[in-house]
Amino acid sequence: MVEEGESRSLEYTPTWIVAVVCSIIVIISLLAERGLHHLGKLLKQKNQDALYNALQKLQEELMLLGFISLLLTVSQRTISKICIPAHLANYMLPCKREETTTSTTEHLVLNIGRHLLSEDIGAQHCASKGKVPLVSLEGLHQLHIFIFVLAVVHVIFCATTMVLGVAKISEWKRWEESIINNGPAKHRHVHHRHPLFLTQRTIGHYRKKPVLRWIVSFFKQFYGSVTKADYMALRSGFIKEHCPSNPQFNFYKYMLRTLEHDFKRIVGISWFLWLFVVVFLLLNINGWYTYFWLSFLPLILLLLVGAHLEHIITRLARDAVENRTDGVKPTDDHFWFNNPKVILFLIHFILFQNSFEIAFFFWVWTTYGFDSCIMEKLGYIITKLVLG
């Protein structure tokens, strides 16, 4: 007869329960797989190759996540049987252990010991040697959930950012249509020097000082970061450089395709991002407030990237004035290390870091509760959420 609170293996679990649970898991998995398959076919039909490739990248990440999940599940009992001396388990703790009296401690150890001996073979194995497990089954299970939550939140966060990015540049579509539909005057946007753009970006003595240009660029990213004059000048420079024979080239559609192409690169979780997760988990020590200080990193990087991009547009305008050329001339020399991919890398890291912050918050909240010591103080929590 089954007693209350008794743990049962599948040997003593009714077959109808096993069948129902398996059916639910299989149905959910098939629905998710079919949904992604039909989404891919829809993107193919609409010639959205960049988004289709991003979906393929997402499926690769899900496959990697499934492999990590399988590896943790299969090896959890083996890992839990790895034993270490008890004193090593007291270093670099994310939460400080509460001090208790000897009698209370002995009583707690006996109760926990009985529970672990009945549930955790690894604890029983290590207890017989006078040691403790490297990590308990419960700890492995919680780590398993954290990796899953992190991957899901990152995908949702990137997709949301993609949608907001498309909405943000929707104004550029109206500018493009007004340029193309401008009749006989449309060719002027390819060969004109754009005095308004040059005036806005180069007028004033402060524009000659690099430090002051950086300060202006830093604050300009908060309002009208790309004006219509900027767009027209950059568009004409691009067309003159890459397709001078086609003045009606749709620059907006090109930018949209580029955004979709870059999305494919940032939706994945690269090896260096997984390394970042490992380093953070290593440094999440009680009293260090690593989680709090880390929340400033994506904001700082985001402001630097925004200011840098603004500064590049200003430098293009200055180059046009100094060289007395017709319009701006696109170049990679103004980017950090003369490589635009550095900006894309930083954006990828910023998105992942924000995803990590959100995923870690909800994981701790749902696993340990809002009062957990990992959550730190209420003021820190509010600050982190506001920064995010």
Keyphrases for this structure?
388 residues; mainly alpha; 1% strand; elongated; two-stranded antiparallel ribbon
Give Rg in angstroms: 28 Å
Share of residues in helices: 55-70%
SSE order in H/E notation?
A: HHEHHEHHHHHHHHHHHH
Strand order of the largest sheet: 1-2
Low-confidence stretches: 100-119, 184-191
Overall spatial form: elongated
End-to-end CA span: 53 Å
Overall pLDDT confidence: 76
What's the main sheet like? 2 strands, antiparallel
Based on secondary structure, the structural category is: mainly alpha
The number of helical segments is: 16
Number of strands: 2
Share of residues in strands: under 5%
Describe what you observe in this structure:
The chain has 388 residues and is an all-alpha fold. The chain contains 16 helices and two strands. The protein has helices at 15-45, 49-80, 102-119, 121-127, 137-168, 170-180, 188-191, 195-202, 210-220, 228-242, 251-266, 271-283, 290-294, 296-323, 341-368, 378-387, and strands at residues 83-84, 132-133. Strands 1-2 form a two-stranded antiparallel ribbon. Mean pLDDT is 76; it is low at 100-119 and 184-191.
